[in-house]
Amino acid sequence: MSGWKSYREKGEHDGPARLTLLVVDDEKRILESLLELFGDHYRILTAQGGNEAIEVFTAERPELVLCDQRMPGSSGIETLKRMRELEPGTIRMLLTGYSDIDVVIEAVNEQVLHRYITKPWVNEELLEVVAEGALRYLEESGLTDPDSGILF
After folding, report:
1. C-alpha span between 5 and 22 (Å, rounded)
2. Residue ranges per structural domain of the chain
3. Mutual orientation of helices 28-38 and 123-140 as an angle, nearest 10°?
4. Listed range (23-37, 77-91, 98-112, 122-136) with the worst mean pLDDT
5. From the centroid of its chain, how far is CA 151?
6. Do the beta carbons of residue 59 and residue 22 sit within 8 Å?
7. Which pick of 29, 50, 104, 126 has the fewest CB atoms within 10 Å?
8. 151: which residues sit within 8 A by CB, 6+ positions away?
9. Could you tell me if 50 and 35 are in contact, meaning their C-beta atoms sit under 8 angstroms apart?
10. Cα dihedral sign for 61, 72, 132, 22?
11. What is the DSSP letter of 113?
12. Cβ-proximal residues to 12 (8 Å cutoff; 6+ apart), any chain
């Protein structure tokens, strides 16, 4: 299954193109859980921390990012700010605990992220939030044709 980036570059694909979702968390078990949750819907990339996320983001330019807030080194918001500078059109979402809510509100107001999801999350709600992000990306990119072959 090809990614949307490949479709944009070549203008063709070998089946339905999937939007790419970069999942960032410093806990391996959470990455595995989210990979399982989203694997049937998106092309998934993972990174364990902000620095690795920026490397993956720079190389792959995913359309969607789901990033944990509390990580060693670079916080989720710091990581998403760097991503916004590199690719403003990417849909950026943050996973966070309730204790970070003031920081999250500030980040939303500064347009660093599109949505935030509190931990612990409900799988169905998280799937819906990311699907809304995918639709927003397609709409903002002018790609809402239902016959486009894009899966999400």
Report:
1. 13
2. 4-143
3. 70
4. 98-112
5. 15
6. no
7. 29
8. 16, 17, 18, 19, 41, 42
9. no
10. positive
11. -
12. none
What pTM value is reported for the model?
0.85
pLDDT over 70 at 15, yes or no: no
pLDDT in tens, 46-99: 999 999 999 999 999 999 999 999 998 899 999 999 999 999 999 999 998 766
What are 34's two structure tokens? 């989210």
The phi, psi pair for 49, rounded to 5°, reads 120, 165
In this structure, the number of other CB atoms found within 10 A of the CB of residue 131 comes to 16
Rg for the chain (alpha carbons), in Å?
15
Tell the residue number behind the tokens 């999350």, with chain if given. Answer: 121
Judge: domain 4-143, CATH 3.30.43.10. no
